[in-house]
């Protein structure tokens, strides 16, 4: 077992990788202008990061189980930071795409492995509260990465945010490595745990494992890839907000998510896990319907804050269940959950895009609302929680 490490350091590692995903949002027009391409062509930088981020879960989980979860996460943060710094010095778009893929690959290993390590170290009764503290880093990245990246780019060019975040990631990785001490350079006694890639078969042979992967896929399909990414466009095209205003309104989601990280303990004590699944899931469905029917943008702004809280009430329980799906190979189980979520997100973005063409924003949001309500009720019936 690695030495005890403050949860705040894990949260900071999560912040760096989360910010690495979101930092590009305001930079695409500047990058496109420098390299002489259209923004649509520069948008491949987003896929260049996200695809490796999702697919690396296949190997990161089993590798962490075998060689040590915190060890692998530490090396991943360092290599992620190095890729960010190198990104600031590229001279062509193709080089930047390659480095975004590099960064996505290593960033994708960090949060699932650290979450699995937390689960190894914390009793189940305290696990959701501890994971909520760990998720503070990811939530703050959602709130701050875009605005801070945009301010730095306006003041000093698009390359500066890469250097700043890269140096931060290298610093976090160095401190994490120092806290590990000699354990950084040696594998766990007995070669660690897990059965490598074969552990995925163990997970899928369990009815609870198949249920969890299906729920994660639908979570990603309806929310991560479905409704959530299109709220900004909804504000711009339906309510006439500009990009900056839409970004600020959408950031309200992060405020609701942050509220969850602060109040997870009393919420869990009051409602229990099954209650949080029900309230969070049904709340998501009702709020998406309210989004679809919103008469003005201030209503959307209020809904965004509530969506952030409801989502993490629902999703937080699922993440905690994932840590217990395969206790002998938690890195694999959490990685499998993240992979299913990513695959659902990818499919959901395509499906929601088609839904916009056929039904418009309001119709697509209503369909998503109905789907989430069905998912919430199914999840409540199928969950084996306290």
UniProtKB/TrEMBL annotation:
One of its GO terms (molecular function) is transmembrane transporter activity. Residues 6-386 form the Major facilitator superfamily (MFS) profile domain. It is a multi-pass membrane protein. GO terms for cellular component: plasma membrane. Keywords: Cell membrane, Membrane, Transmembrane, Transmembrane helix. It is found in: Cell membrane. It holds the Pfam family MFS_1. The chain crosses the membrane at residues 42-60, 72-93, 99-119, 131-152, 158-178, 211-231, 243-263, 275-297, 303-322, 334-353, 359-378. InterPro entries: MFS (IPR011701), MFS_dom (IPR020846), MFS_Efflux_Transporters (IPR050189), MFS_trans_sf (IPR036259). This is MFS transporter. It comes from Roseicella aerolata. The lineage of its organism: Bacteria, Pseudomonadati, Pseudomonadota, Alphaproteobacteria, Acetobacterales.
């Amino acid at each position: 077992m690695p030495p005890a490490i403050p949860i705040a350091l894990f949260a900071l590692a999560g912040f760096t990788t989360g910010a690495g995903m979101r930092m590009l949002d305001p930079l695409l027009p500047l990058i496109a202008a420098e390299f002489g391409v259209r923004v649509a062509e520069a948008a491949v930088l987003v896929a260049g990061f996200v695809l490796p981020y999702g697919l690396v879960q296949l190997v990161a989980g089993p590798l962490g189980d075998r060689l040590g979860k915190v060890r692998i996460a530490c090396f991943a943060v360092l290599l992620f930071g190095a890729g960010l710094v190198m990104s600031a010095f590229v001279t062509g778009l193709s080089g930047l795409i390659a480095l975004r893929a590099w960064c996505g690959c290593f960033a994708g290993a960090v949060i699932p492995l650290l979450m699995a390590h937390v689960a190894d170290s914390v009793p189940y009764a305290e696990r959701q509260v501890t994971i909520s503290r760990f998720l503070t880093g990811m939530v703050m990245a959602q709130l701050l990465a875009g605005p801070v990246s945009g301010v730095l780019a306006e003041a000093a060019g698009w390359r500066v945010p890469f250097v700043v975040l890269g140096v931060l990631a290298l610093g976090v990785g160095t401190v994490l490595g120092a806290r590990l001490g000699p354990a950084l350079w040696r594998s766990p006694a007995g070669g660690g745990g897990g059965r490598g890639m074969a552990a995925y078969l163990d997970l899928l042979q369990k009815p609870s494992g198949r249920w969890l992967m299906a729920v994660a896929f639908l979570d990603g399909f309806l929310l991560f890839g479905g409704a959530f990414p299109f709220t900004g466009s909804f504000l711009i095209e339906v309510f006439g907000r500009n990009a900056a205003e839409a970004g600020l309104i959408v950031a309200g989601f992060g405020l609701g998510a942050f509220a969850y990280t602060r109040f997870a303990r009393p919420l869990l004590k009051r409602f229990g896990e099954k209650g949080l699944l029900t309230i969070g899931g049904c709340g998501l469905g009702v709020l998406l319907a309210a989004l679809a029917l919103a008469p003005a943008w201030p209503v959307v702004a209020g809904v965004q804050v509530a969506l952030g809280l409801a989502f993490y009430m629902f999703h937080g329980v699922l993440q905690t269940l994932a840590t217990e799906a395969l206790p002998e190979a938690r890195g694999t189980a959490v990685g499998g959950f993240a992979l299913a979520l990513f695959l659902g997100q990818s499919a959901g973005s395509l499906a929601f895009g088609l839904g916009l063409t056929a039904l418009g924003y309001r119709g697509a949001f209503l369909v998503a609302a109905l789907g989430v309500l069905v998912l919430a009720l199914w999840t409540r019936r199928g969950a084996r929680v306290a």
